[in-house]
Amino acid sequence: MSRSAVLCGLGSWLPPRCVTNDELAEELDTSDAWIRSRTGIGQRHVADASMATSDLAVEAGARALKSAQIGSVDAVILATATPDRLCPATAPGVTARLGLGRVPAFDVAAVCTGFLYALATAAGLIAAGTADRVLVIGADTFSRILDPADRSTRAIFGDGAGAAVLRAGQRHEPGALGAVQLGSDGSDEDLIRIPSGGSRDPFRAATAHEADPYFRMAGRAVFRRAVECMAESSRRALAGSGWAVGDVDRVVSHQANLRIMHALADQLVLDRERCAIHLDRVGNTSAASVPLALADAVAGGTVRPGHRLLLTAFGGGLTWGACTLRWPEVEPV
Ligand code: UT7
């Protein structure tokens, strides 16, 4: 019988400092009313200057291992768009700090879809027999890459980390990942990007002109693509799992904008009440968004063992993905 990846641990961590919409409005031309009505966000967490993405990742990773009640894994995958440094990857350092030894560790770069790409990669390692247990972490500190003067991105993004442990198991067990569907469209890569600092426009060369080290997003166009791509990806993941839309108890989608989540539910012809909502308290935490929303929904009792879940995300690249999962008896830490 073929091996499947089964979720057996879930952890989350948010930096303690919280920034409300009113606090943002003290320094930017925005308001609590605008941010709430256009995005559904009420506040976001921001990491202290002393913290980097790896620090958040270690916190969430340790909690996921505790939730799974294990002390070792065969591989660690970290999804992030805000690595500690451009080189090397952040995952090996996180692995060492977690005391996980000399196992393979690498980063996955798919921005807000990163956690789903990392889950799919972990599932592949498990199916191939390369690993029996994999720690998958989604962690981002977008506060470090936002333009302090850009109200459209400052209003949305927050920092955080979420993690899951996958183990080898059987296809019909609770927690087994169902069909995983991923996609990308690089022809629209400019819709979400950091213009300078990479090999295309290294800071050294950029001194000749104006370097732009900040995250830029064409909000409206991204909004449209997010709804369209998550809906299409979700339909494919449901079809691959043999589920009808009506079988889904909860949609745990990337928490980018409440209007996007509602539009996605409408497109799928699914009751909006079935959307897990976490962004009101944390904003868009990029690669951490799906595991954080999942942990919040389980802790709050809106996701319970046996529930049929649809996970879906969309991000820079452009990238997107979806997968199904029947929630197991797992307590998030
Ligand atoms: O995580 C990856 C995926 N990301 C997303 O899915 C995000 C998708 N995009 C969005 O969520 C929305 O496009 C935004 C929340 C970013 C912006 O909302 P919008 O309703 O699409 O507004 P807009 O960008 O079309 O801008 C409308 C107006 C503009 O003013 P003018 O040019 O009409 O005078 C913006 O400058 O709203 C203004 N605006 C703001 N006003 C007050 C943008 N941000 C703010 C703000 N406060 N924070």
Structural account:
It is a single chain. With 333 residues, the protein is α/β, with parallel strands linked by helices. The chain folds into 2 domains: 4-169, Thiolase/Chalcone synthase (Peroxisomal Thiolase, Chain A, domain 1), CATH 3.40.47.10; 177-326, 3-Layer(aba) Sandwich (Peroxisomal Thiolase, Chain A, domain 1), CATH 3.40.47.10. Helices cover 33% and strands 23% of the residues. The chain contains 11 helices and 13 strands. Strands 1-7-6-4-5 form a 5-stranded mixed sheet. A 4-stranded mixed sheet has the order 8-13-12-11, with helices on both faces. Strands 2-3 form a two-stranded antiparallel ribbon. The longest helix is centred in the last third of the chain and has 23 residues, at 219-241. It is globular, with a radius of gyration of 19 Å. The model has no long low-confidence stretch (mean pLDDT 96). The structure holds oxa(dethia)-CoA (UT7).
Q: What distinguishing features does this structure have?
A:
333 residues, alpha/beta, Peroxisomal Thiolase, Chain A, domain 1, 5-stranded mixed sheet, 4-stranded mixed sheet, 11 helices, 13 strands, 33% helix, binds oxa(dethia)-CoA
What are the SSEs and their pairings?
Elements: E1 4-13, E2 18-20, H1 21-27, H2 32-39, E3 43-45, H3 53-68, E4 75-79, H4 91-97, E5 105-108, H5 114-127, E6 133-141, H6 151-154, E7 159-169, E8 177-184, E9 192-193, H7 203-206, E10 216-217, H8 219-241, E11 250-253, H9 258-268, H10 279-282, H11 289-299, E12 308-315, E13 319-326
Parallel strand pairs: 4-5, 4-6, 11-12
Antiparallel strand pairs: 1-7, 2-3, 6-7, 8-13, 9-10, 12-13
